[in-house]
Amino acid sequence: MQSPSRHPAGSSDTKHRPSGAVGTYGRGLRTLSLSTVIAIALALGLVFFYAPLEAEQGFLQKIFYVHVPLAIVALCGFVLGGLLAIQHLRTRDPRWDMRSYVVIHMSLIFAIGTLITGSIWAKGSWGHWWVWSEPTLVSFLIIFLLYATYQPLRFAIEDPERQARYASVFAITAGAFVPLNYIAVNLSTAYLHPRVFTSTSNLPGSMAFTLLVSMVAMALLFATLCKYELTAKHTRAQLRALRRRLAGDGVSPPARSRSAVPSLSHVAAPPAQAAGRSAL
Amino acid sequence: MSGVQTPGRPSLTTPPKQAVGLWRTVGALLRKELLVELRTLESVPGMSLFALTTFVVFHFALNRDSVEGDLAAGILWVTLLFAAILGVNRLFVADADQGGYDAFLLAPVDRSAMFLAKTLTLLAFLVVLELVAVPAFALLLLGPPLGPALPGLLATLALGDVGIAVIGTLVAALAVQTRARDLLGPLLALPLFVPIVIGGARAVSPLLVQAHTGGVVEPPIRWLLTLGLYDLVFGLIAYALFDFLLED
């Protein structure tokens, strides 16, 4: 298991960190945040001033540039969460579990965003808040219902090691389910109703370009939010470890309160007191 | 056993494999499961009774004496699915509570045997359930005759059962070690069963239409293929992941 302090400390914010881990996890956060802000500003500018109004739906169609990137990023995030969980099961490093947890958590939020924007779009164009003929919406509802059990599953297992292992098994299963479910739902609607939304292949160039930029902006936003959450979680774990050491309670392992958040007890403790196991 | 932390693969802590052949282990476990079920009658009678009661409930809830087509396929699948969930919930309870897990982990056998044996057990439960539920459905609710639809229905049910058994076993193993297992099992299983319902109901509904009176009706091959593919993919996933649930 690799200690965080072994990473080269070449970041710009080294002066604030109490020890290795925060600097490692906070590294590049500023650059990432700035590029996200710029990408989102650019994407919004393109959406409102460059992309042409769609002939049938008019201004309402602009929600397409939010809905579709949200959906694609969330889908990729769920699959990525499964891949990170595979890595966790292979290496048994709790940091992979933490990454998988954060990515799934963020994808779940993006999925809720997809459901809400899709619902608004459906209301605007067909007059109903919910349409069963739109496969993206339907499959997102099913995926949302599945992933909504991820946190309860974690919360119901007390032993942190088992929690991480079981959560990874869930994440891999669900990550594989996401594309399969999407295909199944698509099959169930494709032959009954003609597709109403334009598919990306026959978009005019300016719209496709705007969509591409929106997609990049949304992916950057996803990455930034994940990185913020990861940094916050690692910082908090480390802060607790340091506090405990300050209180002279470095040896006895504290009673871990029930939590759905992955434990970083192996990682959070600074190398000097590796014997004093801390818990998140 | 979880106190031994090895940084590498789980196989470092597992006993030397292949001391007993995989299929012999599966056979022994399967025999044990079926014996336990025969002696306690905990799962299958409950599942069958539940299915019968659900048909009665559907009769009153829909206020229909007979159903056909989409409605018939939907009722049949929903009933079978919920009855299956009863079996899924009970699948590992005895092992987790009474030390069957520990005994199995102490034995020098391949751990995948547990997955295969439990899947086959659940599959057997489902077959018995359907032996009761399908004739009862034809008797109580189904409008069109069952005969011409039977071959297609059996093929669809078989493919659906495999999927339910595979996913049910994985989910049951996942949920049984948690505190809220009665709640988490169904919550985890139902979304994963949705593609099976999509494929199953779409394949069965054209079979259960009044218009088909003469000759055998073929189910739509596309949906059978979808079901088969789903079974295959989830079978491989569950087979690969199951070992990680059996480590402590």
So what's the overall shape of chain B?
globular
**How would you spell out the order of helices and strands of chain B?**
HHHHHHHHH
Poorly predicted regions of chain A are 1-22, 268-280
Q: Give helix % range of chain B.
A: over 70%
Number of strands of chain B: 0
**Overall strand count of chain A:** 0
Number of helices of chain A: 9
- What is the structural class of chain A? mainly alpha
Could you tell me the radius of gyration of chain A in angstroms? 22 Å
Largest sheet of chain B: none
- Compute the number of structural domains of chain B: 1
The biggest sheet of chain A amounts to: none
Topology pattern of chain A, helix = H, strand = E: HHHHHHHHH
Let me know the average pLDDT of chain A.
79
Calculate Rg of chain B over CA atoms: 20 Å
For the largest interface, the chains and their residue counts are: A-B, 33 and 37 residues
What does the average pLDDT of chain B come to?
86
Characterize the structure shown.
By secondary structure, chain A is mainly alpha-helical. Chain A has a domain at 29-49 and 60-196 and 205-240. Chain A is 66% helix and 0% strand. Chain A is built from nine helices and no strands. Chain A has helices spanning 20-26, 29-50, 64-91, 94-126, 135-147, 150-155, 160-190, 205-246, 265-268. In chain A, helix 3 packs antiparallel against helix 4 (94-126) and helix 3 crosses helix 8 (205-246). The relative contact order of chain A is 0.16. The model of chain A is unreliable at 1-22 and 268-280 (pLDDT under 50). Chain B is an all-alpha fold. Chain B has one domain (22-30, 41-246). In chain B, 70% of the residues lie in helices and 0% in strands. Chain B contains nine helices and no strands. In chain B, helix 2 packs antiparallel against helix 3, helix 2 packs parallel to helix 6 and helix 3 (69-90) runs parallel beside helix 7 (150-176). The relative contact order of chain B is 0.15. Classes of the chains: A mainly alpha (280), B mainly alpha (248).
